[in-house]
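User: For my dataset I need records formatted as: sequence, then structure tokens, nothing else. Please produce one.
Assistant:
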Amino acid sequence: MDRTEANTAGTDAAGVEIVSRRLTTSRLQTHILERAATGASTRQILLIHGNVSSGEFFRELMTTLPAEWQVVAPDLRGYGQTEARPIDASRGVRDWADDVLAVLDALGWQDADVLGWSMGGGVALQLTLDSPQRVRSLTLVAPVSPYGFGGTHSAAGTPNSPDFAGSGGGTVNAAFVAAVAAKDRSDTAGSPRDVLRKFYVNPARFTPSAEQEERWVDSMLQTRTGDDFYPGDAVPSEHWPHVAPGTRGVANAFSARFMNVSAFADLRPAPPVLWVRGDADAIIGDSSLFDLAYLGSLGAVPGWPGAEACAPQPMLAQTRAMLEQAQQQGGEFREVVLPGVGHSPFLEAPQEFLAAFTAHLEGRR
């Protein structure tokens, strides 16, 4: 049964009310932001955020979507104001996908148009695999590869080593994790604020307002840290970079050791997909500055054994191969690449993003 707790509401400058509330679902207490539809709802939109963030990053998008759409952005477990329960990485991203399905049940939604950003793209794909009848359409925004993050090569997601070294909790910058845990609000190099400014967006194109930046830093600093949360545990490896994924926490959940959602291509039918990305994304791409193999190829991480042994991950090629395979099986997708845009297209290019997103949905009444 759905039980609502701690309702609060905020109205933006345009007069759009966003309600903050907590749902008691069959799995855990989940905090959501919700914007009700004006009149009868014609669509139900579910927005799934990425790593080291929360539903708060969608606030601006929520205020601009068509008034007849009902829109909900939950905080995933380990993030925002949702109840903190450990993440079992051995299930891949299924803990989050199951939590999101429980949100749909608690809201009484039979289905939804689902948007997943970054890590949330992997969660959205897993949700679709597990409950395809609940997903009317899928929008992937700068999504993690269907083979997770790090430790693979080739469009088919071939592991670089048998233990998936180069992915998982041990590959995350420890100083950044410590800064999140310490609620560091400074702008020093490597702080959450600094990472937001340099990597969540392309700073050459977009600078958040002071109010936006404070809200988004608040969101980042709500991330739970540790072996059960962000980044997760790790084990030593004989393979470069000599660390392999453990079985707990965030970064292990989206390691290819446990995450593989490429079977999306075999769904009959697969929901229609809009894939939106920026061509200046430094986080998700074939030259990701967060992929240790790519950093090794630049000489930034010592001891890299070369591309034959440890090639950088072709994240875009992996996503494209999955979507093209789905298309060959009767599915459809559209790829929209926004010039000069970084990891957050809906923030950096809101008008262009809104046009693509609404066209995707309104063409499927």
